[in-house]
Amino acid sequence: MAPVLEVDDFHMHFFTRDGVVKAVDGVTFALEAGETLGVVGESGSGKSVTALSIMRLIPEPPGKVVKGDIRFRGQSILAMSEKDQRKLRGNRISMIFQDPMTSLNPVQRIGKQISEPLRLHKNLSKKEAWEAAVELLDRVGIPQARERAKNYPHEFSGGMRQRAMIAIALACGPDIIIADEPTTALDVTIQAQILELIQEVQSRSQSAVIMITHDLGVVADMADHVMVMYAGRPVEYGTADDVFYHPLHPYTWGLLDSLPRHDVDDKGKLQPIHGSPPSLIHLPSGCAFRPRCTHATELCATKEPPLVEVRSGHLAACHYSDDEGWIGACCTVVTRRAS
Q1: What is the pLDDT of residues 248-289, one digit of tens each?
Q2: Which of 11, 37, 137, 143 has the fewest Cβ atoms nearer than 10 Å?
Q3: How many CB atoms sit inside 10 A of residue 82's CB?
Q4: Residue 73 has pLDDT above 80, yes or no
Q5: Would you call the peptide bond into 59 cis, given omega within 30 degrees of 0 as the criterion?
Q6: Residue 297 CA: distances (Å) to CA of 306, 308, 335
Q7: What is the sign of the dihedral through the CA atoms of 273, 274, 277 and 278?
Q8: Which long-range contacts does 155-161 make (Cβ < 8 Å, 24+ apart)?
Q9: Cα–Cα distance between 37 and 227 in angstroms, integer?
Q10: What dihedral angle (degrees, nearest 10) is formed by the CA atoms of 32, 94, 10, 62?
């Protein structure tokens, strides 16, 4: 059975007065029905641009697809007409945006915003779409859904606005749900409820999920596969167990070593990754992570490491990722799957 989504060596660059911003520079992955892919990395690593590119929401110009393809059920999204892309967007592929306060229309009632895709894609009448919107609000845990559907976004709390965004994303029963930092700025209790809701929806509908987040704990709990991105490129890809128990790239080690430990008595100090991500206009020579890597060698400065399969289904972009002795000597972080 063909994957529901395939991203093949995809490059999205922004052409600006200051130079070419290589926001996404060679992303490849496949997503099966019912599977969750976790995409992690620091701000500026290309996670959200990848998601927006799948949705075809990057304005061109300044953005431009330089290379690669994105296929939905075997059909190229890039080759579709704008009309066909609109039929796909919000219907077969939906997105939960990072900040619901800026994503929801402040002058339209919540119920109307949820019913809009139903009227557009499912040809429901105004009354039918409104009733479906009320049902969706109830489904995502909004109390007194019929009354709350008449409210405006500013009358909802942060957690309720995010639930409304999820209701909009679920309205048409999409094959793929892209969740871009869906728990940002929410307190821990609400975060857990939102993530549980996404998992419940996925279990019921067998939708594929792309979970974009900074929180490795969220990824460990939800993801089947994990893609670690740095400077617009994937530097490691594998199952959640592979990435958390047997990481192959120094950047992944740094991310894991930055996590607080709750399973040991002597927790010690957190080990941050020193430095900052590079400019995507002026990338360093060789490996982009080299200036921050404590294990870099002369080879790392002269040659960019390709993303290669080191173990079955486990890929890494490091010159030394297949050197077991080097990994054992350098990787001091005790990896575990967070709970």
Answers
A1: 898 998 888 877 766 555 556 777 788 888 889 998 999 999
A2: 143
A3: 8
A4: yes
A5: no
A6: 16, 19, 24
A7: negative
A8: 156/110, 158/100, 158/101, 158/185, 158/186, 158/190, 159/186, 159/187, 159/190, 159/193, 159/194, 161/100, 161/101, 161/104
A9: 7
A10: 180
Query: End-to-end distance of the chain based on CA atoms, in angstroms?
Result: 32
132, 166 contact by CB (below 8 A) = no
* 128, two tokens: 């039918």
Taking residues 59-88, what's their average pLDDT? 91
Query: What's the token pair of residue 302?
Result: 């002269």
Q: What is residue 6's three-state secondary structure?
A: strand
Chain position carrying tokens 């300044």:
62
What is the distance between the alpha carbons of residues 50 and 136, in angstroms, rounded to a whole number?
A: 28
SS3 30: strand
Tell me the average pLDDT of the chain.
Answer: 85
What is the rounded CA–CA span in Å between residue 280 and residue 43?
Answer: 12
Cα–Cα distances in angstroms (integers) from residue 130 to residues 77, 104, 146, 216, in the given order: 30, 17, 9, 38
Mean pLDDT of 200-228: 86
Cis ω before 61 (30° cut-off from 0): yes
Record the tokens describing residue 242, joined without a space: 């592979």
